[in-house]
Amino acid sequence: MQVIERTFSEFLRQPKEVVANLAQHDVVLRRRNAPDLYLSLAASDLSRAKTIECLARLLCKISADSPEAMDDAIEAAFPWVEFLSPDGRREFAEDLTRTILASASVESFDRVELLIDSWQNTAEILSDPELTALLSGPFTITHGGRVPCPPAVD
Predict the structure, then answer these.
(1) Full-model pTM
(2) With contact defined as beta carbons under 8 Å apart, do 22 and 39 qualify?
């Protein structure tokens, strides 16, 4: 489905016209000094969520039955996995499929983006030997000792 853009002020002035666009398009409402809004029909959103859940189940099955095919797919989709160890690549693939499936079941995908970003950040660190060595320790404590436990809350 194609996405069209309208301004938020257009939506406020002519809501029926903007909503009429939803029969054929999703609508992005551009706002000044605020994040844009995305309008779509509930049926379209539900259809997307079901599709993502189906794809997640396919990924789980492929991962279980053909780890080599899953490894190839992960490497093609995320070139930065080259900097992860083989165990790290496998762990990323497992984390990704579980998180996509769980996210699809609750129709909330923020955790997928967070997971991908976290693993990509790890790969970026591992791509730099100096940074990897620096972050691998050993660490020198410079704050004067152990941090005390917070007091109990009554």
Answers:
(1) 0.71
(2) yes
The DSSP code for 60 is H
Domain boundaries defined on the chain: 3-40, 49-132
* Rounded CA Rg of the chain: 22
105 Cβ contact partners less than 8 Å away, ≥ 6 residues apart: 53
| Three-class secondary structure of residue 7 per DSSP | strand
pLDDT tens per residue across span 6-45: 999 999 999 999 999 998 999 999 999 999 999 999 888 8
How far is 53 from 103, CA to CA, in rounded Å?
8
As a three-state string, the secondary structure of 86-117 is HHHHHHHHHHHHHHHHHHHHHCCCHHHHHHHH
Q: How many CB atoms lie within 10 A of CB 27?
A: 18
Range of lowest pLDDT (29-33, 71-75, 113-117, 139-143): 139-143
CATH T-level topology, domain 3-40: YefM-like fold (3.40.1620)
Q: Minimal CA–CA distance to 60: which of 31, 24, 100?
A: 100
